[in-house]
Amino acid sequence: MTEVRARARRRTVGQTVAVAGIAVVSMVAGGVAVAQVRQGPVTTPAATSSPSASRPSVPSLPPSTSPTTPADSSSKPAAPPPATTKSSPPPITEITSAMMLQPQDVGSGFTVLPPSDYHGDWIFEAGANSQGCSVDGFRPKMVSQRWRSLRNDDEQDSMYVEQRTVLYLKGHAAKYLQDIRRRIPDCPQDRSSPMEITAEGFAGDDALMVASDNGDGSISKRVLVRKGDVLTDIWRKKAPSDSAMRELARKAAARL
How far, in whole angstroms, is CA 110 from its chain's centroid? Predict the structure, then answer.
């Protein structure tokens, strides 16, 4: 009986150890820690997992970001940055030599005559009077003026270019040019080529081109160009084409 009990006890212990070993192998193959059932002081050997049995690593997720809160539609838009103001040029107080036509503006071979050679019998008012036009009109108040005469010694007198530039009181130059527009159509029309406006608005802030008969069958032309309160009067006897006079007027406006 004692021997039978001993054999039964050894058989029971052997089955328990076998079952526990199977459980350990199964659990370790899945990479999970096992809670061992003990039947006495049994030491479980350390299990080494093979590389093929290791679980794949899970990539770490980036830190979550909170969704952007939409802008409040009721909030006012940000004020735009203050605009950079451009500095205005100082006001003109006198007509300088640099504001007049230069020889290179007119053509090759031109020079400026000395002031003693300037004369004023060609200006618009003189020409209008010689054409029989009315002299009753707006009389602007002058602040500063300058005369210039350019001549090409290699050519005849027809190559003279005369210029008078005047700084008027504020608003007077514009009003005077409008008065010239009004007066010219009222000039006598019984001449073969009466004084007439042939082009407008081609240079500066405003401009007129006026053609008139010289009395010898030739036509002279003048351009009146306004830039602000400055008005320049440029005259040419036996003048070139209208396009050449317009180009001269643009150069004069650029000088102003």
Answer: 38
